[in-house]
Specification:
Chain A is built from five helices and five strands, in the order αβαβαββααβ. With 121 residues, chain A is an alpha/beta fold. The model of chain A has no long low-confidence stretch (mean pLDDT 95). Classes of the chains: A alpha/beta (121), B alpha+beta (76). The A-B interface holds A 32, 67-70, 80-86, 89-90 and B 45-46, 49-50, 53, 57, 60-61, 67-71.
Chain lengths: 121, 76
């Protein structure tokens, strides 16, 4: 099995829009995670959500990769665009939708799913 | 951590800039910071926020800041 860091990197690299949150899209455990999810949903993104709460190592490994200290973290096509504040600000200015449409093509799907990481030892 | 301490860290990192710190809950661990600085000129939002995160790296890392909301502006 690949290491946790390899799995995180793979999710970031392969999911068009990956968002690391506290909780799940159905039950966000933090207001900021909810803010990021709402902005992405309103921008029509295909959202792949990863819960960082099941294991503190997820957040440690993620922050080591992204050099971003807080949760949530939003990635579009492998690139960190920011946390809840930036995601909301980019949505309000219309840039978020433009960025997603440019990255994925205007006819991309709007979906929400949860990606589970395999937590070994 | 008092809002004052965060204010000082941000003023050190952004000399001559405008800094505002609000303790959102009164509990000393949820903060809204607003910084306007020439250091942000020409930078993307994510680069701007990274500078703020770097200035507050210590209290973010040791958990004294539980939640941080950031708003940044250049001066150009």
């Amino acid at each position: 099995m690949s290491t946790l860091q390899e799995q995180i990197k793979q999710v970031i690299d392969t999911e068009p829009v990956a968002v690391f949150i506290k909780g799940t899209p159905e039950a966000p455990a933090c207001g900021n995670s909810m803010r990021a999810l709402q902005a992405l949903w309103q921008a029509g993104a295909p959202i792949a959500a990863i819960d960082v709460l099941p294991d503190p190592r997820i957040r440690q490994e993620l922050t080591a990769l992204s050099e971003w200290p807080t949760i949530p973290q939003v990635f579009v096509k492998g690139e960190l665009i920011g946390g809840a504040d930036i995601t909301e600000e980019l949505f309000a200015s219309g840039e978020l939708k433009t960025k997603i449409d440019e990255a994925l093509g205007a006819d991309h799907a709007q979906t929400v799913r949860t990606v589970e990481l395999a937590l070994g030892e | 951590m008092a809002a004052n301490a965060i204010h000082v860290l941000l003023e050190q990192a952004f000399p001559g800039g405008e800094v505002a710190v609000e303790d959102r809950t009164g509990g000393g661990d949820h903060f809204q910071v607003t910084v306007s600085s020439e250091r942000f000129n020409g930078l993307s939002l994510i680069q701007q926020h990274k500078l703020v995160n770097a200035a507050l790296a210590a209290p973010l890392a040791d958990g004294t800041i539980h939640e941080l909301r950031i708003r940044t502006k250049g001066t150009a």
